[in-house]
Amino acid sequence: MLGETERLFRLSPSPPLPEDQANKVDQLVAALERCIASNRTCIGEGPWEVEGRWDAETLEGFERSCQQQWGVEHDLDTGIINLWGDSSPLHSSLGDDLRALLFARIDKAVKELPLEDKVTEALVQDVLLSTTVRKYTLKHPDPSSTIKTKQPDAMIAIHPEYAAFPQYSCPQQHQASPGIVVEVAYLNESLAALDSEVRLWAQSIIGTPARLATGVFIQDRPGYPADPYATLALWLPGENKLNLIPFGADSSVGLISGKQVGCSVSPDTLDGHTIPGQPTLSSEQFIVREECPPVPIGSVYLDLSREKFEEKHDVRLSDAEMKALTGLTVVPDLTKLRLAVFKCLYKPSQKSLGKRLSCGYQFQSCC
Fold first, then answer.
1. Disordered: where is this region (predicted)?
2. pTM score, two decimals?
C-alpha cells in the first residue's frame, strides 16, 4: 500500500529546465501520481511499473525538479520505470536506522584496532560517506537481465576523495562500489521482491558490486500495529542464498536487552520453514537463522585507496593493518533495530505507557 493519494512536491530547478524537457517531466509526474493512486491499497505486490517509456534525460529532469519518497528504478534498455518503496514514516526512517546501527559498529570496531588515534578518527569520520545516497548503474549476471539505474534506501561507502575507482574499458562501468547498501520492504514489496533487490546489489556485473547487501522486511501483524513481524536480510560473501534473521514478533529478539520471547524460528535451514505472515520458504532460496551471524562490515574498506589516504593524512598503513581493517566483523544488536521499529510505529492511542506489549514486555520509555 502506497498511502493516500499524494502529490509529488515540485521544486524550482536552477537553472530552469528547457521547455521540452520540462513538458516531459510534467508527463512523468502525472504518470507517477496515477501509479501511486491506483496501487495505494495493494500490499506486498510491488514494485509497480509506471506507464510509458522514459529516457534518461527526462528522469534527470524529474530528479532535479521533484522531491519524492519512493525509489525510482530506471531500465536503460527498455525505458521502463519501476516504483519501489513507499511513503510511510517507517520506510523512510528504517533504512537510516540500520545504516546508523552498522556505522556505529564500524566506528567501535575501528577504534579497537591498534592504530594511531588520528588514523582511527580519519578512517571513520573522513573516509566513510554515510549520509548521501547515490544512483548506481546495475546489471544482474543473468543473460536475460537488463541494465538499470537505482539508488538504495541507505548506504555506507568510501568517500570519492578516498575511493579506489576500478578501471574498466567501458565508461559506463567506471563507478565505485556502493559499499554497504540497505533496502527496506514494507508496504509495497514482498520478501521475494526484497530478495531480488538485494541480489542485484550483491551480484551486479557493472563496476564493483556492493561489499555487503542488506535489507529489512516488515509486515504488519493484525491487532498489534506497533509490533510487526520483522526480518533482517543479509547477503554474505560465499553464500548464494539470502540469510533471514527474524527480529520482530515471534523472534528471539526482545525489546528489552536480556529478555527473550518465545522463539518460533529454527536455527537450521529447513524446507517448509515458515516466517509468520509469509508463504512457506524453501531452503533452496533462503537460510533462516535464529541469531544474526557475523557481518563483514570491514569489507567496505576494500574500496579504500591506501595511497590516497596515506598522502592526505601523512600516515602509513601496513599490509597487516589493512588486512585487519578489511576483515572486521561484528554481530549487530537487533534489539536496537526492533526498538527503532517500535518507536516509529508506537502511538499512545494504541497502548498506554506502562502497558504490556504483545510480546509480554513491560514498556518503560522508548518514545
1. 1-21
2. 0.85
